[in-house]
Amino acid sequence: xxxxxxxxxxxxxxxxxxxxxxxxxxxxxxxxxxxxxxxxxxxxxxxxxxxxxxxxxxxxxxxxxxxxxxxxxxxxxxxxxxxxxxxxxxxxxxxxxxxxxxxxxxxxxxxxxxxxxxxxxxxxxxxxxxxxxxxxxxxxxxxxxxxxxxxxxxxxxxxxxxxxxxxxxxxxxxxxxxxxxxxxxxxxxxxxxxxxxxxxxxxxxxxxxxxxxxxxxxxxxxxxxxxxxxxxxxxxxxxxxxxxxxxxxxxxxxxxxxxxxxxxxxxxxxxxxxxxxxxxxxxxxxxxxxxxxxxxxxxxxxxxxxxxxxxxxxxxxxxxxxxxxxxxxxxxxxxxxxxxxxxxxxxxxxxxxxxxxxxxxxxxxxxxxxxxxxxxxxxxx
Length: 381
What we know:
The protein has helices spanning about 30-50, 60-65, 70-95, 105-130, 145-160, 180-215, 220-225, 245-260, 265-285, 300-310, 325-330, 340-380. It has about 375 residues and is an all-alpha fold.
């Protein structure tokens, strides 16, 4: 039967079935990104250890050996500690009380709202026609109220019924048209979720930019907390979560989930958002500048942009974690293709080669000395 504005289907509010039969949905926002992190990291680790795609590698082996102050073993250990803290907080903060209405009711409600907005516009058309006769709108009957009174009345009804359902007494009771149904489905399945994801990205990026910059500006926070992450000057994939617990807990464990909550994401949406941005965070630290990187959609030259921030000479720039908007607004953006940045990269590579060559020479010189001392000791016996 065709639905009319006064005959909406039953909302049937309540929890929906879990996406996975063995795991409740409210555990997804913290478990999915954690699993995704190690899957992506393993892929890049395999590429790195097998020497694949070396032409896209940003740094040389000499830089990796001479610049990084954190061993890969320590990085894995602290990344696991960070994820344990995040998962613990995620478990404690998980929302298992989500209530949903049926998709049929939700789409019919949007169709009803669309018709109600058209009713508001239709009621104001006579006054628009008086102001702009060329609009050509025709209306039935007449109304002696002022345009302001009509708009105040119409929007007052709309806002007043926002939490109580729409007042359908003045809406055409005919069945919804195909256009209204199409609009309703587009709103429910596409436009509203898209707006939520954009809002989540804006909120998370704003939060991450200013907290990240604060960890650099405040000398105590940098020295005792954030400097740990910058022990990695030549980034690699699973080094993305090499952070101090005092940074992980307030930013990643508490602040980030609240940003998603404010944006209105449900548990499944939060899990997907977390997976997407975990992907970007790992890719930004992977050390490879692959062509057609999807992360470049939200941040041009995404890998290079963040790699510059990890260099000793670039730490005061490129604080943004997701996009580059705030760096551009706040004057902290530095293009990795800038001639000065490229010159510093070249000097860094050359210096690393010299340091690595000296280390190899010292290792070679120590080998004969060890052999000679062994021969002397045997001769003495």
